[in-house]
Design goal:
Blueprint lengths: L19 H11 L3 E6 L2 E7 H5 L20 E2 L4 H11 L3 E5 L5 E6 H9 L2 H4 L4 E7 L5 H10 L4 E8 L5 E8 L5 H9 L3 E6 L4 H15 L3
Parallel strand pairs: 3-4
Antiparallel strand pairs: 1-2, 4-5, 6-8, 6-9, 7-8
């Protein structure tokens, strides 16, 4: 999934000739805290709500402001994960999309990103979750997959967490089976440490926990 698939066209960007008041009104209308500034189809930068609130005279045009955030954008070909990373990096509620020539294509809103993530099959399909903890040097996705497949299951999604100040890593596995007992027993037989597991009864709680973490990650 790439940026061009997430673009919304119904949010009108600002122009340099717009006043601070009109820009604030548009942000209120669209329920966003950031809007792109576009002149002759070329993306110029982003304006934040706090920039407008700091204006001495809001009846002046936003052309009086210095657009320091011209780098806040994604290319039409950027992947969903890169979009999430940039939105978190800049703490923005929306991010502009440009083509290779710098032409403004449209805007991606945070809610749209979350909706697409929620509709990924790995999140929607039923199944259980196993969280393994191991030394980074012991990590072998091939061995992990072989253990799971030996019990008649398949991996739907994986998520790896590492820390620069630790030699440990956490591997989260979403599987296509809800009953995880035999799979967990096999992992334990191979001396894997089971940090957590979520079956049918606790799966909804786990999804809520991950959703809350994602909200925090995107700084909502």
């Amino acid at each position: 999934m790439i940026a061009k698939d997430l673009v919304v066209q119904d949010i009108i960007p600002l122009k340099i000739s717009d006043t601070g008041n009109s820009a604030l009104n548009r942000m209120m209308e669209y329920n966003v805290h950031h809007l792109p500034v576009v002149e002759e189809k070329i993306y110029k930068g982003m304006i934040a709500e706090y920039d407008l609130m700091d204006m001495d005279y809001r009846n002046e045009t936003i052309g009086e402001l210095t657009l320091e955030n011209e780098r806040i954008n994604v290319n039409v070909k950027d992947h969903l994960f890169d979009i999430v990373k940039k939105m978190n990096q800049y703490g923005t509620s929306a991010i502009p999309v440009v083509d290779d020539e710098g032409h403004y294509v449209g805007l991606i809103q945070r809610d749209g990103v979350l909706e697409r993530i929620a509709n990924i099959n790995a999140f929607k399909d039923p199944g259980g979750i196993i969280v393994l903890e191991m030394n980074t040097s012991d990590y072998s996705m091939g061995e992990v997959a072989q253990i799971i497949e030996s019990e008649g299951a398949r991996i739907l999604a994986t998520y790896v967490e590492t820390s620069p100040d630790s030699k440990k890593m956490t591997l989260t596995l979403k599987l296509n089976k809800v009953d995880l007992n035999t799979i967990i027993a096999t992992f334990e037989r191979y001396s894997y440490e089971i940090k957590a597991s979520y079956g049918e009864e606790t799966f909804d709680d786990y999804l809520q926990e991950r959703y809350d973490s994602l909200m925090k990650y995107l700084k909502i």
